Amino acid sequence: MATTSNGLIAIRDSSKMYVIEDKGGAIALMLAALFFLGTWPAVLTLLERRGRLPQHTYLDYSITNLLAAVFIALTFGQIGESKPNMPNFFTQLTQDNWPSILFAMAGGIVLSLGNLATQYAWAFVGLSVTEVITCSITVVIGTTLNYFLDDRINKAEILFPGVGCFLIAVCLGSAVHSSNAADNNKKLNSTNKDIEDGVSGVSNSYINTERAKAGTAEFLIELENRRSIKVFGSKTILGLGIVFFAGICFSLFSPAVNLATNDQWHLLEQGVPHLVVYTAFFYFSISCFVVGIGLNIWFLYKPVLGLPRSSFKAYLNDWNGRHWALLAGLLCGFGNGFQFMGGQAAGYAAADAVQALPLVSTFWGIILFGEYRKSSKKTYSLLVSMLSMFIIAVGVLMASSGHRRH
């Protein structure tokens, strides 16, 4: 085992693949995952607000998301000599480990469905509140499942108060959304224009030749005209339904990968080694890729939620913002990979601390999209309270991390 001078990261490299074993190293990976997984939604939201079809964006995203998994498998998973109890990536591809492979692929399927749903939810509900609700469901269901799957290696007296802190932050986040929505309605009503039937009749009156300032009614109307998913006049229940569906999907993918790498149900034949996290992540990403590509090609020709019809040829010719979509796929791919690598060392329940990613997403929402600009003092107070509670939640969940016995 090699340990850095500050004692934070220990990497076992005895002529085989790199495996993070130290708690400090695991937490470092989880912090990196927190940043990556909180940033890529902001990138996709930016593209949707600029008018790029979400089907086109998700197809690009899926490509680099898979490439990130392949890179991780061929580097961390393949370096060095294969060992009987910890084979490298290529060796494990030939072994009889189908039960674990199916769990990993099931995790990829539910994650892909969740990600597909959220790219529409961001438009209807907003970036911050979508991430808050989906992450709260993930914490309540997914973290609890991982705690028991991990044979309770995480400290319950710390873990579950952390879950409670997260739920408090969720309530505050919902209050932020409600207060901000009321602020926006007041701004729009002040224009004395009826926007219930759309914005086509008011856009010319209220959009100046110069770009409207964030937080104004003119900005909200300009955004509606420009974005690809039209949200004015939509029913609240539609957006929330999409969000809750995504949250349930997200809550299941981490436990599925946990089962794939640790075989808690003893489905593998005796003598067959567990899937190493790199191989599991590879299979996970393969199924995520297939579902994402398949459904979005279908959505090109059979669009949902009022989006225009497109084609595969139109997608190939759409280079507007493609580099951002490809970047988002890399961020998500490496973020998920780092989460699983950290979870393998410290416990997947502690790794679910990355579900505090709304802390990052809200930051980008404020900086990039001007969310909460010109809002009321009530909204600002709730926003500060929410972000403070998220910081506490991240710290408490990470403090609960135990050390997996190998």
Automatic annotation (TrEMBL):
<feature type="transmembrane region" description="Helical">
    <location>
        <begin position="277"/>
        <end position="301"/>
    </location>
</feature>
<keyword id="KW-0472">Membrane</keyword>
<keyword id="KW-0547">Nucleotide-binding</keyword>
<feature type="transmembrane region" description="Helical">
    <location>
        <begin position="158"/>
        <end position="177"/>
    </location>
</feature>
<feature type="transmembrane region" description="Helical">
    <location>
        <begin position="26"/>
        <end position="47"/>
    </location>
</feature>
<feature type="transmembrane region" description="Helical">
    <location>
        <begin position="124"/>
        <end position="146"/>
    </location>
</feature>
<comment type="similarity">
    <text>Belongs to the plant ureide permease (TC 2.A.7.19) family.</text>
</comment>
<dbReference type="InterPro" id="IPR009834">
    <property type="entry name" value="Ureide_permease"/>
</dbReference>
<dbReference type="Pfam" id="PF07168">
    <property type="entry name" value="Ureide_permease"/>
</dbReference>
<feature type="transmembrane region" description="Helical">
    <location>
        <begin position="382"/>
        <end position="400"/>
    </location>
</feature>
<feature type="transmembrane region" description="Helical">
    <location>
        <begin position="100"/>
        <end position="117"/>
    </location>
</feature>
<keyword id="KW-0067">ATP-binding</keyword>
<keyword id="KW-1133">Transmembrane helix</keyword>
<dbReference type="GO" id="GO:0015505">
    <property type="term" value="F:uracil:monoatomic cation symporter activity"/>
</dbReference>
<dbReference type="InterPro" id="IPR030189">
    <property type="entry name" value="UPS_plant"/>
</dbReference>
<keyword id="KW-0813">Transport</keyword>
<feature type="transmembrane region" description="Helical">
    <location>
        <begin position="59"/>
        <end position="80"/>
    </location>
</feature>
<keyword id="KW-0812">Transmembrane</keyword>
<dbReference type="GO" id="GO:0005274">
    <property type="term" value="F:allantoin:proton symporter activity"/>
</dbReference>
<feature type="transmembrane region" description="Helical">
    <location>
        <begin position="236"/>
        <end position="257"/>
    </location>
</feature>
<protein>
    <recommendedName>
        <fullName>Ureide permease 1-like</fullName>
    </recommendedName>
</protein>
<dbReference type="GO" id="GO:0005524">
    <property type="term" value="F:ATP binding"/>
</dbReference>
<dbReference type="GO" id="GO:0016020">
    <property type="term" value="C:membrane"/>
</dbReference>
<feature type="transmembrane region" description="Helical">
    <location>
        <begin position="322"/>
        <end position="341"/>
    </location>
</feature>
<feature type="transmembrane region" description="Helical">
    <location>
        <begin position="353"/>
        <end position="370"/>
    </location>
</feature>
